[in-house]
Structures are given as C-alpha cells and as structure tokens.
Design brief:
By secondary structure, the protein is α/β, with parallel strands linked by helices. The protein contains twelve helices and 13 strands. Helix content is 36%, strand content 15%. Strands 3-2-1-4-5-6-7 form a seven-stranded parallel β-sheet, with helices on both faces. The protein has a six-stranded parallel β-sheet with strand order 10-9-8-11-12-13, with helices on both faces. The protein is globular, with a radius of gyration of 20 Å.
Length: 349
C-alpha cells in the first residue's frame, strides 16, 4: 500500500539521518514530506522530498512520522517513530540523557544492543512504546557501494593520510577551543590532510576560526557532509561527541581529548601538547586497540549491510499492524509537551 510519510528534524545534523530513510521510502513508491524547524529551518532534503510547514504536515495525515530529534509534534497524525539524533556518549546521566523517555513516541528504532536492552527494559516498565533494533539509517551509506562525495574528499588529500576533527558544542566538553592552536600547527606541517567539522550549535566565531584553516592541507566539512567525511578519513580526532561512535562503527581508530567516559577503544589524552604523538598512535593501532574497536562497534551497531532504513520501515509497518503488541495510553507529561510544541510551532487547529 502506497502512503505518505513525514520526516521531522530540529537541527541540520538530522538531515543525514533522514536522507537514507527518505530514499528507501521513495524506492517503495511512498510519498515523503519533511517538516524542518528550529535549527533545521531553511534546510532541505533532496527532491522529491517535499518541504511542508506545520499546517501542511497536519493536512498530510501521514501514516507515520519519523523523528531524528528528542521530540515530535504529537498533534500530527500517524505513528510516532524515534530514530535518534546520535549515539549514547554519556554526556549526562541516563535519566536526563540518551534513555530519557518523554512519552511522545510509539516506537523506538534502536541502533544496537547497548541501546536496545535499556529501552526494552523501559518499554516493559512503562508499556506505552515498542522497541525494535533496526540499526541507524544515518550509517547506511557507510556500508553501501562507492560514495562519490567521500571519494572527492579523499582526492583532496593527494595521497596523504587523512585525519578528521569533530567537536561537540557543549562548552565544558568541547575540544575545539582548546586544541585549535595544536591542530593549526599540525595542518601547517602538511604531511597529513585534515577534514574539519563542528557541531552546528558551536559559536559562530569558532566556525570562523576553523573555516580559516581550510586550504591546501585542510577542508571544512558542513554537517550534511559528515558521513562522506567519515568514510574518507583514516583517523578521527574528537572529544565527547557522538561522531566518535559513528566513526568506530567502521573499526577505524579514534583519538579523544578529555572524553567524559573514556573506553578501551579510545586513545584519550588531556594535554594539547600530546596531540602529535596521539595522532601517530592512531595511525599505528595495536592489535589490542583493533580488537577493542571491533568489540565496541558490534555492541553499538552490529549491522553492516546498509539496510537499517528498510528495517525501520518494516518495524513501523509491524507496529501499525499491531504485530508489536498493544500499547498503553501515553503519560500526562506527553500531553503537556504536545501543548508546548503547539505553542512553539504556532498551531492551534
């Protein structure tokens, strides 16, 4: 049965999460529209995805709404499906972080065992949502055929090794201000090529500083290019950002600066003067590090077939068909959040 589906995003970094799902829906003959608000307002997904405003989203009466955000407009019809906007990087405690349940979603499409098990426990306790481990649509392109964008980024290196730098916007955790001088010195050396990116919420002046490093030895990557950049890079330099986990899924080494919860698969350091030596270690991973990378990758995202989007669609159809069991009524807090979204989006019918 052909149907209309709605994609929902509140930040630009959600677009690479939604794009593979849009392609899967379109390949199946479905209509796909996108409601992009807050930080994602003014952005777009490739045609034939149709951009709609909030009234257009309501009028669409979608079969399901796929959200790559913490919330979703509950006053739009259809099943509400949570896709997540990142991996659990333990920035906050579970109750306030990745495993916070806001009562808005009918289905959580989880990335791997480390996410699935906690949400299954919560689903058993609360009863108002279902959980299916599907993998993450954003990573589908990592495991598909050739990626022209990744190849183009790689070609810029001219045969040199490629380092990618990514940073969170959380000021107390961000490496971007602290490592700027050390990264600039590495770029000036020119023996490696750098791909630089920042979280869209980072300060504009920080964006200006890092964009100014682009040239013969570096390229600045916009949020929409994040996945091709990860394919193109050999080693990642980062902090406590979800990009660390995305990169590890490829079994590639990650060097982290003052990570909030360092783990065996990370090469973590705290002194900017250590940066050159840590990058060297990243390019010469030990067997122990390689095993740790593989183990963690299997725990967070074991699927490597590039078909997470297909599983998301199948899980959604199973939910709608009642195959995932009956769901309890949503909690009172969900009603309050729905009112807040109506107020924010200016929709009252």
């Amino acid at each position: 049965m052909m149907a209309d589906y709605l994609l929902f995003a509140t930040e630009r970094y959600a677009l690479p999460i939604l794009r593979p799902l849009a392609e899967t829906l379109q390949a199946a003959g479905h209509g796909v529209s996108a409601l992009l608000v807050r930080g994602a307002a003014g952005s777009a997904l490739p045609a034939p995805v149709r951009a709609v405003d909030v009234r257009g989203a309501v009028a669409l009466k979608p079969r399901a709404v796929f959200s790559a955000a913490n919330d979703v407009p509950t006053f739009v019809s259809g099943a509400k499906v949570q896709l997540f906007h990142g991996f659990n990087v333990e920035k906050r405690g579970d109750a306030r972080g990745h495993f916070r349940v806001r009562g808005l979603f009918d289905l959580y499409c989880t990335q791997g065992p480390l996410t699935t098990a906690p949400f299954q426990e919560l689903a058993a306790q609360l009863g108002h949502f279902a959980v299916v481990e599907t993998g993450w649509p954003k990573l589908d392109p990592l495991f598909r055929g050739e990626d022209p964008e990744a190849a183009a980024l790689r070609a810029k290196a001219g045969g040199r090794p490629v380092v990618m730098f990514a940073s969170t916007f959380t000021e107390r955790l961000s490496a971007a201000p602290v490592l700027f001088d050390a990264i600039a010195a590495e770029i000036a050396r020119g023996d490696r090529y750098w791909l630089l990116t920042l979280h869209p919420k980072c300060a504009p002046e920080l964006f200006d500083r890092y964009r100014a490093l682009a040239g013969a030895n570096a390229h600045f990557v916009e949020p929409e290019q994040l996945v091709p950049a990860q394919r193109a890079a050999d080693v990642l330099l980062a902090d406590t950002t979800s990009v660390v986990s995305e990169f590890v899924v490829q079994r590639k080494p990650v060097v982290t600066f003052r990570n909030r919860a360092p783990k065996p698969h990370m090469l973590d350091f705290s002194d900017p003067a250590q940066l050159p030596a840590m990058i060297e270690r990243g390019f010469a991973p030990t067997p122990e590090l390689q095993r740790a990378l593989a183990d963690y990758a299997d725990a967070i995202h074991p699927a490597r077939d590039g078909r997470a989007s297909e599983r998301v669609l199948a899980a959604t159809e199973a939910l709608i068909a009642g195959e995932l069991g009956p769901l309890k009524r949503k909690p009172l807090g969900a009603w309050r959040r729905g009112l807040q979204m109506r107020w924010e989006l200016g929709y009252w019918g």
